[in-house]
Amino acid sequence: MSDPFEATTATLKDVAREAGVSTATVDRVLHGRPGVRDATIRRVKDTIERLGFRPHAAAAELARGRSHRFCFVMPKNQNVFMAEIVEHISKVRVWLAARRTLVDVVETDVFDADVLAETLEEIGPRYDGLAVVALDHPRVRAAIDELVGLGVLVVTLVSDAPSSRRAYYVGIDNIAAGRTTGTLIGRFLGGRSGKVAVVAGSLSLRDHAERLFGVSQVISADFPNLDLLAPVEGRDDDDHNRALTRRLLDEHPDLVGLYNIGAGTTGIGTALIESGRAKDVVFVGHDLTPQTRRFLLLGVMDAVISQNPGHEARSATRVLLALSRNEPIVAEQEYIGIDIVIRDNLP
Amino acid sequence: MSDPFEATTATLKDVAREAGVSTATVDRVLHGRPGVRDATIRRVKDTIERLGFRPHAAAAELARGRSHRFCFVMPKNQNVFMAEIVEHISKVRVWLAARRTLVDVVETDVFDADVLAETLEEIGPRYDGLAVVALDHPRVRAAIDELVGLGVLVVTLVSDAPSSRRAYYVGIDNIAAGRTTGTLIGRFLGGRSGKVAVVAGSLSLRDHAERLFGVSQVISADFPNLDLLAPVEGRDDDDHNRALTRRLLDEHPDLVGLYNIGAGTTGIGTALIESGRAKDVVFVGHDLTPQTRRFLLLGVMDAVISQNPGHEARSATRVLLALSRNEPIVAEQEYIGIDIVIRDNLP
DNA sequence: CTGTTAGCGCCTTCAT
DNA sequence: ATGAAGGCGCTAACAG
């Protein structure tokens, strides 16, 4: 071999010439389209192999000239985390525009199965693909499955509907997230005994229920010195959570740990500060926001469990793009990790 | 109905027609090339704005038709972490091949400034860009600067040379990584008193020195109950580290914490297990490997501080590509976080 | 079954 | 300072 680059610089035309066929035939073989004799297929494949030919992605994209329309279906009353995802979608728009891909965002009540399902049914068919913050409910599953049947790509985002026919889930393993919190609280307490409280938004949300499951597992299995209280629900609302926390602190002088499973962390942190017991209670919550960042630096929160909203926004679009172009997905790149953030590794 | 895509689908030709100029002129304006009257520039820019025109990335790439050659300069005696980066480079090769981009990997003694500098000087000019695991040394800096002067793009990887003219650093903030470890060890010990030992590969390596600095800061400032021993150096070698650890354990019956700053974690873990004190000593090290993963699950290690090798390999290539095409870098996407990995959030 | 041919949208000489 | 025209490598419609 001469120029080490030559191998990768062969074009489809080269292959055609070398194989003694037309470019159209090479193209057919390349994409497994019918209408080519087996013998010819083999000959072409050999030449491709021999020349180390790789189709030029940009040329293919240009020639295909398709454009894609995707839509993100997001919660209507966005908390900071969801708002950040939306913000990142906007940032990716420029990049996508240069690829003739358009992404819309619609907001709906993703917590009401009927409303969500209707939204999906209505807007779904207008798009090539959807990224949905899903509710795991039969009605929603049905809507997703129907769309998939119509040829619309569906990926779930942040919250999954595992039993649906969605093509992919972009988000974290919430049981593992709960377990992670359990271990952190237990370890940070270093043998101290007492009660651990859990505040959830709503336990009918799959991700909240899963996180609760995870934390319970770990606390009961590994930390006999700790006593997990029955979870309370605060609808992800700061005021509710503040009141709930106040009550928990009052009723349990021996409260040593606190886990906020959903949003509304500000309310809890405020109540903790007001009680003067912020430093005595190990407090872990989700999602890195200006508020939780502040709480970490103040020592009110001991850790934040976080999933990178930018990564999730990009990942969802990349996955949709790859799926609709029939390109492979780099699973490793799309994996969303459970980030543990403490004061010292704040991004 | 009119194509809802129309707005984003305007082409350079459309702009030319609307602005009453030729496509060549639009192209000139688009890329700020000289030879266009100010008035014309304004007119074209206005039309671009008005039509919401975005150049089609694929078309541009095709027309430009350039190809790129990059090279990763990696340590010769690769530890697992470095080997994983190399592995990921191979995975990206297919993707890159479709973009007429070739990446080589050369191995050299990156710990010897002269050898590294010579390698850089020798192979650098053959490439459009280099990703280098740098040693922060005057000789190396000079070599990097010279290459940059020749028009070769240089990014540093994992280990930086901040005062050189390298275009970018792909890697973590090592001081913060050290601080993170310090806090974790301190918190996990939950008030227990005793000594904390630090094993480094070599303190003349910038990243090792920085991690030491970080951990010292935190331990001395926030954990008066802990006593940081003078660091020992084990050259990232399992056998050395095992012997060192054995000695540390012997000499300090009150050793409660252990931080391995570099590689060779297996040796330390082995010594810990052999001593029977694995559960009594909080042990934190770097990089997720099959071994450290096992140690986490066994409870021998309490946390692993890790930087995602796949992310780093992709990031370095993306940055090199973006730089050489004069495209913007998505800083947020290329940020390498300090991952805290415990038993429960293992990927 | 296979080949011909006209683009896709942009970039780049080469003229003017 | 500006325009005309050819081509990058692949795809797809249309012939045969």
From TrEMBL, chains A, B:
Chain ranges of the HTH lacI-type domain: 10-64
Keyword Coiled coil attributed: no
Alphabetized UniProt keyword annotations: DNA-binding, Transcription, Transcription regulation
Any single Pfam family the record assigns to this protein: Peripla_BP_4
PROSITE patterns: HTH_LACI_1, HTH_LACI_2
GO molecular function: DNA-binding transcription factor activity; transcription cis-regulatory region binding
Domain of life: Bacteria
Protein known as: LacI family DNA-binding transcriptional regulator
